[in-house]
Design brief:
The chain is of the alpha+beta class and 284 residues long. It folds into two domains: 29-94, Arc Repressor Mutant, subunit A; 103-282, Beta-Lactamase (2-Layer Sandwich), CATH 3.30.450.40. The chain has helices spanning 17-21, 29-42, 51-58, 62-74, 92-96, 98-101, 104-120, 162-169, 174-183, 197-210, 254-271, 278-282; strands at 49-50, 78-81, 86-89, 123-129, 135-141, 156-157, 213-216, 223-231, 237-246. The chain has a six-stranded antiparallel β-sheet with strand order 6-5-4-9-8-7, sandwiched between helices. Strands 1-3-2 form a three-stranded antiparallel β-sheet. A hairpin with a 4-residue loop joins β2 and β3. α7 (104-120) runs antiparallel to α11 (254-271).
């Protein structure tokens, strides 16, 4: 499990300065390559991928790559199309990880976010911070709209995805924020992306002041998102949830949607017995 992995008891494991500073552990090369294959297939959910493409992209020899894929096929994690000679992730992987998606903590969170989606009419994604700083979607709740905002479960937002990152980082200790900024390489996802340290520091301060993260067209053109952190019993951010919508619809609903998000967060924290830090509670 990652430092913020799902736990049936608390939703996250303690994360300390010591564990953050620990040197990387020695990896098992064969397992590392197998995980790389799984991640590559996960990044292409709408298409089947050939052995040559997987092998070439990941720089794994064809013989080794084929052995990895055939092993994954044997266990039902990957599906092989005999006619097209291509590979896709398969449902056996979900069965192997089913306990992650059925943990009591996650069930309580999911129920309350589902209610939020029904109340607001806008989509919501629940993400979990990863060891590499990215955010992976573990729940995607969509509204009943003809055109909806949706990302698949397993989709990775980068470490500087505006709504997720600010919801995650804004209530961290200042030294941790500074370390993150020191390691940050700006990416102009759109013309509205923040690409200077000064801009981002200001927006982190604004996020703390207003009590939620806000992104308009910074990651995806024409899209808006509001984000909030969900804390665990250890006071660390275990998850981040974001309400997302088109820029033509969500801005006008901000004053109505955000209070609903805060009420939902309070309900979640009570249900999972979370302990939000004083710096977060002080800004409410």
């Amino acid at each position: 499990m990652s430092e913020l992995g799902i736990s049936s008891a608390e939703g996250s494991l303690p994360r300390t300065a010591a564990t953050e500073a620990a040197p990387p552990q020695k990896l098992v090369p064969a397992l590392e390559r197998a995980i790389a294959v799984i991640n590559f297939l996960n990044e292409h959910p709408a298409e089947s991928i050939s052995l040559a493409e997987i092998s070439g992209t990941l720089q794994i020899t064809k013989s080794h790559c084929r052995a990895i894929l055939m092993t994954l096929v044997q266990f039902g994690w990957v599906k092989f199309d005999e006619r097209a000679k291509t590979y896709q992730l398969y449902s056996g992987m979900l069965a192997s990880g089913s306990s992650l998606l059925t943990s009591p903590v996650l069930t309580r969170i999911r129920e309350r976010l589902s209610d939020l989606v029904q109340q607001t009419g806008f989509s919501c994604v629940l993400t979990q911070p990863q060891a590499d700083g990215s955010f992976v979607i573990i729940e995607n709740l969509t509204a009943n709209r003809s055109m909806d905002v949706s990302h698949p479960v397993g989709f990775h937002f980068p470490k500087d995805a505006p709504a997720q990152m600010r919801a995650y980082m804004s209530w961290q200790p200042q030294e941790r924020i500074s370390r993150w900024l020191d390691d940050w390489t700006p990416t102009a996802y759109t013309a509205d992306s923040l690409v200077t340290r000064e801009e981002l520091e200001h927006e982190i301060e604004e996020t703390r002041r207003r009590g939620y993260s806000r992104s308009f067209g910074e990651h995806f053109e024409g899209m808006m998102a509001f984000g909030l952190p969900i804390f665990g019993r250890d006071g660390e951010v275990a998850y981040v949830f974001c309400v997302m919508g088109f820029g033509s619809a969500l801005p006008a609903k901000e004053e109505r949607v955000v209070p609903m998000m805060h009420r939902t967060l309070d309900d979640i924290h009570a249900a999972i017995m979370a302990r939000p830090p004083k710096i977060f509670l002080a800004g409410r």
